[in-house]
Write a structure and sequence with these properties.
Largest sheet: none
Number of helices: 14
Strand content: under 5%
Shape: globular
Structural class: mainly alpha
Number of strands: 0
Oligomer: single chain
Helix content: 55-70%
Number of domains: 2
Order of helices and strands: HHHHHHHHHHHHHH
Radius of gyration: 22 Å
Length: 384
C-alpha cells in the first residue's frame, strides 16, 4: 500500500510540475521572441508579466469550445486527448532525479527499473501522430487532411534516424535502461559523458526530435501560410490548446532525454556526484538536471525564431539523404570500435570526419544541381 501511495504522489507531483512548467515555458518563449524581435512581450498581468500564464489558463477554460456540424464527433474529440496522453505517458520512464536519494513520499521516476525504457519512449511517442492524423481526418476539411498527411510522412521518416542515433549510446552503455545509462556517466565523471563519444549522434537525435515534435523549422503539419492552420484548423478552445500542450510536453521529454543520454543527467563535478551525501544533495542534483533541461529548451526556442521553415521536399530529403545515412554510419563505427577494442576517443574524431564529409558531399551535390539548370535560371554568381 505504501508503494501505491508513493507512486500516486510521484505521478501527481510530476504531472503538476510538467503542466505548470509548460504554462511558464510559453511565457518564456513569448519573452524570448519579443526580445529577438525588439519588442517587450507580456508585461501587464502581474509583476513583469509573471501572472500571464494564469490569465491565459482562465481565458481558455472560459472560452467557447465549438464543434463544427460536419466533423466526426467521436474522433474529433478524442484526437487532442491522444496527443496529450501519449506524451505524458512517455515521461513515466524518464528519471528526473537521483534514484535512491528521494524523500520517503515519492520517487524520482514514475516507473523504475524498466529495462527497455528507451524503446518504450519511442514506441509511445510514435503514437502521438495518430492524434494529429485523426484530428485532420475527423475535421472533414481538406486543409486539415493535408496537414495530417504531411505529419504522418514526417514522423515516420524522422523516427528512423531518431532511433538509430541512440543505438550508439546503447551499444556503449550495454543497456536500454535510462537510469543505468545516467549512472554510468555519473560514476565515470565528466569525461565519460556520451556527448564526447557521440557528438554526431547527439546532433542527429536533436534534429530528429525537433521534427518529431513539429517545432520550427520542421512545423510542416501546421504551417499557417500554406495550409490555413494545418490539422487543427477546425479546433478551438481547450481542444486546440491540448494539441500544443502535447507539443510542449514532447519538447520537455526530449530535453530530459538529451540531458540524460548525452550530458550526464544530474551529475556535475564537485557539487553533484554519486558520492555527494550532504544535506539537500538530492535537491542540488535535481537543480543540475533541470538546469541542463532548461538550457536545451531555451536553445529550441532560439532556433524557432532563427531558422526559416524547410520546404517539404527539403524536410524529407534531410531525413532520407542525410540523417539516416549518417546515423547508420555512426552505428557501424561504434560497433567497429567496440569489436576491435579501439580507444573510444577515436569516436569523436571519426564523427567529425563523417560530418565534414557529409557537408562536402552536400555542397558538391548542390553545385552539380545548379550547373545542370538552364543558364538563364542560374544565380548571378554562377553565370560569371
Amino acid at each position: 500500500m505504501n508503494e501505491l501511495i508513493q507512486t500516486l504522489l510521484t505521478i501527481g507531483i510530476a504531472l503538476g510540475a510538467i503542466l505548470g512548467g509548460c504554462m511558464y515555458l510559453i511565457l518564456v518563449e513569448r519573452k524570448i521572441s519579443a526580445r529577438m524581435q525588439d519588442r517587450i512581450g507580456p508585461n501587464r498581468v502581474g509583476p513583469w508579466g509573471l501572472l500571464q500564464p494564469v490569465a491565459d489558463a482562465v481565458k481558455i477554460l472560459l472560452k467557447e469550445d465549438p464543434s463544427p456540424a460536419h466533423v466526426d464527433k467521436f474522433l474529433y474529440r478524442i484526437a487532442p486527448m491522444i496527443s496529450v496522453f501519449t506524451t505524458l505517458l512517455a515521461f513515466s520512464v524518464v528519471p528526473f532525479g537521483p534514484e535512491g536519494q528521494a524523500p520517503w513520499f515519492m520517487r524520482f521516476i514514475i516507473a523504475p527499473n524498466i529495462d527497455i525504457g528507451i524503446v518504450f519512449i519511442f514506441a509511445i511517442t510514435s503514437l502521438a501522430v495518430y492524434g494529429v492524423i485523426l484530428g485532420g481526418w475527423a475535421s472533414n476539411n481538406k486543409y486539415s487532411m493535408l496537414g495530417s498527411l504531411r505529419a504522418s510522412a514526417q514522423v515516420v521518416s524522422y523516427e528512423i534516424p531518431l532511433g538509430m542515433s541512440v543505438l550508439g549510446v546503447v551499444l556503449l552503455a550495454g543497456t536500454l535502461n535510462l537510469e543505468q545509462i545516467l549512472t554510468q556517466q555519473a560514476e565515470g565523471g565528466i569525461l565519460k559523458w556520451n556527448i564526447w563519444y557521440q557528438p554526431l549522434a547527439c546532433l542527429i537525435f536533436f534534429t530528429s526530435a525537433m521534427a518529431e515534435s513539429n517545432r520550427l523549422p520542421f512545423d510542416l503539419p501546421e504551417c499557417e501560410q500554406e495550409l490555413v492552420g494545418g490539422y487543427h484548423t477546425e479546433y478551438g478552445g481547450l481542444r486546440f490548446v491540448m494539441f500544443f500542450l502535447g507539443e510542449y510536453i514532447h519538447v520537455v521529454t526530449v530535453s530530459f532525454l538529451i540531458s540524460i543520454l548525452f550530458f550526464g543527467g544530474w551529475y556535475f563535478p564537485w557539487i553533484a556526484t554519486p558520492e555527494s551525501s550532504y544535506l539537500g544533495a538530492w535537491l542540488v542534483k535535481i537543480g543540475v538536471l533541470l538546469s541542463k533541461v532548461a538550457a536545451v529548451i531555451i536553445f529550441v526556442m532560439l532556433i524557432r525564431w532563427t531558422i526559416p521553415r524547410f520546404r517539404f521536399d527539403q524536410l524529407m530529403g534531410l531525413a532520407w539523404k542525410v540523417l539516416i545515412p549518417l546515423a547508420l554510419a555512426n552505428v557501424v563505427i561504434v560497433m567497429t570500435v567496440l569489436q576491435f577494442g579501439w580507444n573510444r576517443w577515436w569516436l569523436p574524431v571519426i564523427s567529425l570526419g563523417l560530418f565534414l564529409m557529409a557537408g562536402a558531399m552536400g555542397v558538391n551535390a548542390k553545385r552539380a544541381e545548379i550547373r545542370s539548370r538552364p543558364r538563364a535560371s542560374r544565380p548571378a554568381a554562377w553565370t560569371t
